[in-house]
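Weekly puzzle thread! Below is a chain. First person to post its structure in token form gets bragging rights.
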Amino acid sequence: MRRVLVCNSFAMCMLVIASCLLSSTLFVSCLFVKPPDQKTEVSNAPLSPMPEIEMSDELVRSASGDMIALLPKGWLFLDSRSEQSSEVVAIAVNPEYTLSAVFSALPGEAPKEQLEKEGLLGLSRAAYNKHVRKTAGTAKLIGTYSLAELGPRKFGLYDFSSSSTAPRTRCAVFTSATGNHYEFALVPLTVTGKDLPPDADILKVFRSIVATIQY
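Winning reply:
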């Protein structure tokens, strides 16, 4: 019976994550940096290079090897090969199946002119607009875009939600040294009926995974 329950939870989790990926391709102390005013020049701020939670040695790696990251201790990879989106690099969940980490490629999401002019801010806008298109406009930006630095690495950050009551999905976009664009999204899951972790803990998970991203 326990095996059946676990399998059912796994299947439900995969369906929800698949839905997120197909519909969306699928921070005070709640933000890395203060969201910039889009009408003014965007400034960067340094971040702590150390994760805030214990990480494992489970490695996320892009197909070309130009991006790697670590998962928190105890997290499990899900098989993304069955997903229809070839842009998915990896999907992982926490042991409680209440959070999912989705790494995906962003090929051709922003015109070259936009990236040259706006950099990661332009990539952030393009990534969010993709979620909007895939969800027929139900995805709504929470707050605004921001930029952050972690040593030599730079990230574009934004949050969105599918409704006023749905939990937020936190996203970080970045460009590898070889010019490939990627997005890491931390997606809350409600398939098991369990309570989500406190928002402060979710934010620690997000910041910790971002701290391990190398490109």
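Puzzle host: Confirmed. Bonus trivia for everyone else. Residues 1-11, 18-41 have pLDDT under 50 and may be disordered.
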